[in-house]
Amino acid sequence: MSQKSLNEQRDQRLRNLEALVERGFEAYPYDYEASHTAAQLHATYPEPTAGEPIDAEPVSVAGRVMLLRMLGKLTFATLQDASGRIQVSFQKDELPAYNALKKVDLGDWLEVKGSLYATKTGELTVGAAEFRPLVKSLRPLPDKHHGLADKEARYRQRYLDLLVNQEVKRAFELRGRAVAYIRRYLDDLGFLEVETPVLQAIPGGAEAKPFITHHNALDFDYHLRISLELYLKRLIVGGFDAGYEIGRNFRNEGISYKHNPEYTMLELYSAGKDYIDILELVEDLYSGLVQKLLGTTKVPYQGQVLDFTPPWPRVDYTGELAKRAGMEFDPMDEAKLRAWTAEKHPGAGEGGEPPLAERPLNQVFDKLYDIYVEPHLVGPVFVMDHPEAISPLAKRHRTRPGLVERFEPVAVGMELGNAFSELNDPLDQRRRFELQQALRDAGDEEAQMLDEDFLTALEYGMPPTGGLGLGIDRLAMILADVPSIRDVILFPLLRPE
User: Is it true that 3-141 and 164-313+379-488 share their CATH fold?
Assistant: First the structure.
């Protein structure tokens, strides 16, 4: 719609508002009465007899006008509330204010009181005994047949996307119910929900580039957290047995179908547990959640079916990498791994980066895994026992040198989470932080900083602990069967217009 046409429609709607006020209606009333939602009425009277009144007390409904048909002395409208839609009718002979309906526009909100009946086609309808406008929509709604065709417009004006696309609304309802289920599940297991700082002097718990902001009163640059991990571990040191947080993380990274710089994580830590205990928790949590919300553990996603029925398959990180990449050696042999990488992936990287084989070992593993393994895992599946080089916060594997006790649940080429037997040896943790700091000093902006306060906490003693991080947004993608993380974030980050 052109700006000129939009302005003309807005001017006409303003005139309609003035006309309604002149007829004695309040322009923007303070409240309304709704005895029932649309969904409640349809649930109570699912199969009304066509052409017959319904023996029930008068009702009141309120909602946005999505359809309006004026047939001389009879007008039908469809009202939409948060639960769904209900038809209402207006008879000129029974309503002194009937002519005011000419000043009602699509998108306006109405309150309607009246009796229930079924039309000749059997549609449940509220026959208006009285009505009043609640809100005038000064802008026209998107065309009902085309909606918001532009993807970016849908993200920028999510409120309109929700109005005209019920599937979009369903996606966010599923997300909300998933979070509620997770809370109930963990509360029932004895976990305590807590809150930890978003502003952090030293961002830790993940390899990621942080956002930086300045606190004026303290005259100090703080970071928006990249992970919930290190503060939750401090609470285990402080005597909490089991705690969790569902909160926002912020990473100054690129945007893709599975990445948004601001996203929601569940993180939990439980004393006395190891990564196998946490693995069993993840299986039980996910299978119960999808069964509760979708009625099945076999979930369709973008043309594939994901079976969340426990037990999930387990694959070995290094074994899977060797198999899928065609390596005829153990990837933990660094010399052979680098020689193979130099042959298979020669040349410099983007932005003048050195060839992959010459980069730090953690980057070599990460890149090869991203090429050969993760995109090809349909799952859900657990990827087990990662190299120590890419796991600075995980406890060393008790039987496999060079590896740590870590797993990642993966589905349709996406990491859904990350879990460890948590490293609680302060001397080993210091050594690993120092290696990370060296990488950072050499120019790796995603390497972790050395956190002396966290090391001090560990020196007071953290008991054996299992920990987990799960991405809420990617879980919601699967539940709603949508291809992009932006489709499950109400207001994703966009470049300002």
Answer: no
